[in-house]
Amino acid sequence: MKKPIIIDTDPGIDDVVAITAALFLQALDVKLITTVGGNVGIENTTRNAVDLLTFLGKDISVAKGVGDPLVSNPRTASHVHGSTGVGEYRFEEKANETLLTNENAIVALKNHIMHSPEPVTLVAIGPLTNIALLLKTFPETLDNIEEIVLMGGAVEGGNATPVAEFNIYADPHAAKIVFDTSINIVMFGLDVTRLTSVTNEDVEKLRGLGQAGEMVYQMLHYYKHAYSDGKITIHDLCTIFYLTRPDLFDLKRANVNVVTEGDAAGCTITNFTDDGNVSACVGADVERFRKELISVFEGIF
Questions:
Q1: Closest by alpha carbon to 248, among 279, 278, 287?
Q2: CB 46 within 8 A of CB 64
Q3: Residue 221 appears among annotated catalytic residues
Q4: Closest C-alpha to 44, from 2, 5, 89
Q5: DSSP H or E stretch at residue 110
Q6: Which of 126, 177, 192, 277 has its CA 20 to 30 A from that of 199?
Q7: pLDDT digits (tens, 9 = 90+) for 197-228
Q8: DSSP 213-275
Q9: What is the rounded CA–CA span in Å between residue 2 and residue 25?
Q10: What is the per-residue DSSP string for 51-95?
């Protein structure tokens, strides 16, 4: 049976790779995509989600979510992803506007979760604003959420600041709300997303793998400018591969506290303990990860 998932996202080049993989992996059933401001503003992240689904020929609803953090000022990563969020790539197809629902993302999340016949897995690959508002506004949804699998944080270090990863830094107050719940969370932080970086040679292999491979190749080719060491980090893809290939990763139970104020805002303080509600990823089979990336796109048009 396919695993029902909802992807909350701020596309974003690595988001596009992760979403595309999720849509074509037979073990996953993507029920809904919700957008949040993050890598770029909410209008662009929503447009990118609709354009991507149109390009891939997928009939999945997109619900526009929150553009600004709960408390702090908006921050973007347009210097990494480009002003539109997808580098210099341009989707040529006329967007299928019927995919964009009139429901706000928070309401759409609640309705899909509460009406699902089996527990839903939330895949959060952007700032956690929508997820925090969902849990605070509709706490009853907790009973039908299997787990939250997220890309964010780090056991050590950061990329937005010396101690904070971007998704958490972009809305630390929302992240704290999510991590402070009792729900099971699987965290893919910079420790493992950097470890599973792909090479320029891996990116070149995508070039000949159909329209989807060419799209991803062009985006990652642009994305390379952010990585001077020749290793390209597709952060968000770890969450999708975990859902279908969990044996790729090593997890360790922990509690995670999110710093919300001051120079360390966005820092995820990770305390490893068997009593924790977080499974923090601490290792991965890098060579298999890279091979699986190519394998997935070989199976797409």
A1: 287
A2: yes
A3: no
A4: 89
A5: helix 105-114
A6: 126
A7: 999 999 999 998 999 999 999 999 998 887 76
A8: HHHHHHHHHHHGGG-TTSEE--TTHHHHHHHH-GGGEEEEEEEEEE--SSTTTT-EEEEE-TT
A9: 10
A10: HHHHHHT----EEE---S-SSSPP---HHHH-SSSSTT----SPP
Half-sphere CA count of 196, side-chain side, radius 13 A: 29
Q: Tell me the domains of the chain and their CATH numbers.
A: 3-298 (3.90.245.10)
Tokens of 134: 């969902």
278-284 sheet: strands from edge to edge: 62-64, 28-35, 3-9, 120-124, 145-151, 185-188, 278-284, 249-258, 268-272
Task: Kindly name the residue from 81, 112, 221, 235 that is annotated as catalytic.
Answer: 235
Q: What is the pLDDT of residues 69-116, one digit of tens each?
A: 999 999 999 999 999 999 999 998 899 999 999 999 999 999 999 999
CA-to-CA distance for 280 and 66, rounded, in angstroms? 26
Dist CA 206 CA 268 (whole Å):
34
- Whether the model clears a pTM of 0.90, i.e. scores above it, the answer is yes
Q: What is the pLDDT of residue 208?
A: 84
DSSP state of 181: S
Q: What whole-number distance in Å separates Cα of residue 58 and Cα of residue 16?
A: 14
Residues whose CB falls within 8 Å of the CB of residue 168, separated by 6 or more in sequence, listed in order? 127, 128, 152, 153, 175, 258, 266, 267, 268
Residue 181, CA distances (Å) to 112, 202, 241, 257, 267 in order: 20, 38, 24, 11, 18
pLDDT at 233 exceeding the cut of 80: yes
